[in-house]
Amino acid sequence: MTVPGRGSPGVRRSVLDYPKKRRNTRRFIRNTEPAALDMDWLDQVKWANDGLVAAIAQDAVSGAVLTLAWMNREALARTAETGEAHYWSRSRRRLWRKGEASGHVQRVREIRLDCDNDAILLRVEQAGGIACHTGREHCFFQRLEGDRWVSVEPVVKDPQAIYGHG
Amino acid sequence: MTVPGRGSPGVRRSVLDYPKKRRNTRRFIRNTEPAALDMDWLDQVKWANDGLVAAIAQDAVSGAVLTLAWMNREALARTAETGEAHYWSRSRRRLWRKGEASGHVQRVREIRLDCDNDAILLRVEQAGGIACHTGREHCFFQRLEGDRWVSVEPVVKDPQAIYGHG
Predict the structure, then answer these.
(1) Shortest Cα distance from A47 to chain B (angstroms)?
(2) Contact B146 A36 (CB under 8 A)
(3) The dihedral formed by the CA atoms of A114, A119, A125 and A131, expressed in degrees to the nearest 10
(4) How far from B24 is each of A145, B15, B76, B82, B100, CA to CA, in Å?
(5) Which of A44, A114, A146 sits opposite B140 (nearest CB)?
(6) Mutate which of A112, A133, A137, A150 to disrupt the B interface (most B C-beta within 10 Å)?
(7) How far out from the chain centre does Cα A151 lie?
(8) Which one of B65, B67, B142 has the shortest CB-CB distance to A65?
(9) What sign does the CA torsion over A9, A14, A17, A18 have?
């Protein structure tokens, strides 16, 4: 897969830079006039100095908060185009299509922006019912009990079975 | 109200520094042995270089994602002690008890930590049913429709009535 803009998370890039096939699959940008591709809506997001915003994914069916990840401009544009959640991996410093390794993609039903324009909420259908790399439904499985964080959610699938490691 | 540690968001501070009354109201730190007050659980959080982590508040009843805010160590300690959500305001650069001006406090039922130890999820009871300073139930009221962000949630209460401005 060609992943444009793996460099700086702050890079601004038109969707016209994307492969044509990708452009034709966009779900949220329905207006195909050139004006729409300027993507003013992306300019309205208050990107932090590092070019990122926090992005929450919520299961559209169960309501569970699945993940908190990060998006740069390109990740959000890709998410809107493809209808699949894309993020910026801060640790790997690259664009990342959620589920590209695990198959646990997030189909995006809705993209929301908060009152300060600096946080995104995705309402998603979570493939496999597993959002966390630990094989759990969601990432927030540690609960504060007294003075300890306790894992309180079951592992649905062994990560070695998900990623084929080990 | 005395608010300790209004300075740097990265300051580490023991709960012993808090007024005794506050200490006695803590809800999540039930073990009163000195060891518990060292708060190893706070050390397990991966604070970013700026001393903050992202904190999502979710309505424990409706499941709605209400807010995304930021916590420093002290905000999280206070939240656990008092059972009311405290955040670090990046714009005002001070500790902030949610609802201190509006009355729309968040009573915390549960504190969760994610798999990477760098994001917090609070499950809360939202006083007044209003979490957003715009007078809406939650902050994520702008939905991407085509190439526009559209406000799709009603204002429950006029902000001027909430804050007494104007």
Answers:
(1) 14
(2) yes
(3) -150
(4) 17, 11, 17, 9, 20
(5) A114
(6) A112
(7) 24
(8) B65
(9) positive
User: What structural domains does chain A harbor?
Assistant: 2-129 (3.10.20.810)
- Name the residue with tokens 């699959």: A25
pLDDT tens series, chain B, 166 aa? 333 333 444 444 443 343 434 443 345 544 444 444 457 999 999 999 999 999 999 999 999 999 999 999 999 999 999 999 999 999 999 999 999 999 999 999 999 999 999 999 999 999 999 999 999 999 999 999 999 999 999 999 999 999 985 4
> How far is the alpha carbon of B132 from chain A, nearest alpha carbon, in Å?
8
Q: What are phi and psi of B31, to 5 degrees?
A: -80, 120
Kindly report the nearest CA distance between residue B147 and chain A, in angstroms.
5
Q: Annotate A37-50 with b (16+ C-beta within 10 A) or e (fewer).
A: bebebbeebebeee
* CA–CA gap between residue B58 and residue B53 (Å, rounded): 16
CB B56 within 8 A of CB B67: yes
The span from the first CA to the last CA of chain A, in angstroms, equals 25
Query: Measured between beta carbons, which residues in chain B are less than 8 angstroms from residue A29?
Result: 146-147
* ipTM rounded to 2 decimals: 0.79
* Spatial separation of the C-alpha atoms in residues B66 and B108, rounded to whole Å: 13
What sign does the CA torsion over A89, A92, A93, A98 have? negative
What is the per-residue DSSP string for A85-134? -EEEETTTTEEEETTTTTS--EEEEEEEE-TTS-EEEEEEEEGGG--STT
